[in-house]
């Protein structure tokens, strides 16, 4: 089940909300736990047992760590933590990477080991990181172990953020797991945030994805420079509004049920450097790798050479986390190289650039990001290389404006693609910046509110309009899963 489906919007969410509304406080965690299991089992009933095993596994590990620490048995405490980490990574590795390793071995050795063809459980990358961070935080003493297995299960399986994040560490919502309030004004603001996320997904991401899909269906020999540029821009728009839209919906749904999830995006496409981009993009994943990998490895405290090694490890793992394919690993290494160049050279160059020319930094950063998305979106490395070559080939750009041959010419193809995508690209580019938010905030500041922290009349109107437009669009759309479901 996906948030942008009529089943979720018209049946699941209203039913869960109404039952939750009249549910006694002591039974709300149990109800959300059951509802979340139904949500997950809707699409993959068999793999619900893997998630339940991870839940019980780390619940027991958390209790054992607490027990052994109370007895001052530090060796046993550390052993349990290691077992938790190894166990979680083993589960994730088996389901996500087994066939990748078999393929690699076959290619290197010429052997013919049969693939297991294991289906990837949806959301396993996200909930594995969440449960693993829980036991690490209990070991560190950052949080107390949860004694109620239902409450812990609810945290792991909580449907708003179960499938594609944000990655919510237990310490982010520890107090709200056991004690949260049902506030009407927060419910209204949560629905407002949800409607924004739904509109991002349905009205922008899906439409950009349709254009991208049409272009990638064109044979490589017929692609031109302008066509590849349009496809790169559309994918750049699609992945941002798809993923940030999901995060908005997750955060809004969490707010409806009394949770405050961490933000996951902060206008990354207006960044002035790659370093800044990764502080704004998928922020909960960046925080996770920084706190549980980079800093434990030594961070930048053990000399420059060790820092480079630590960054190499982190970015290799970041790429590999996204998918069991070489393009994702190379995508992670691509950012490692960019960040290294930036750290050693470019940041000093950028500092000398006048502030009024800061837009140049944004343009350069976005060109590099778009090139990264080309690599990210093509699991076939040969195809990714061909797209990159076409994008920067003068001949391919010349062909894009060749109008010989009338309506069958590559020049006409360029005109057709630009006509069909220009408005969407303009809206997507502007919408990915703070401009719409600032303009709306300025107007909204004059709108009537019914108290501090309350939703404004203008927000209510916008929420209703976006919901109506989104639902109307969904009635004619087919299945539209989120891109990050496959990661």
Strand content: under 5%
Poorly predicted runs: none
- Main β-sheet description: none
Query: In angstroms, what is the radius of gyration?
Result: 24 Å
How many β-strands, per DSSP? 0
Structural class: mainly alpha
The geometry reads as globular
Total of domains: 2
Q: Can you write the helix and strand succession as a string?
A: HHHHHHHHHHHHHHHHHHHH
The whole-number mean of residue pLDDT values reads 90
Give the termini separation: 16 Å
Helical content stands at over 70%
The helix count comes to 20
Would you give an account of this structure?
The chain is mainly alpha-helical and 487 residues long. The chain has 2 domains: 6-180, no CATH class; 186-486, no CATH class. It is built from 20 helices and no strands. It has helices spanning 6-22, 28-41, 48-70, 74-109, 124-140, 149-157, 159-162, 170-178, 184-216, 225-256, 274-280, 283-297, 304-322, 326-351, 358-377, 381-391, 394-399, 410-431, 435-444, 457-474.
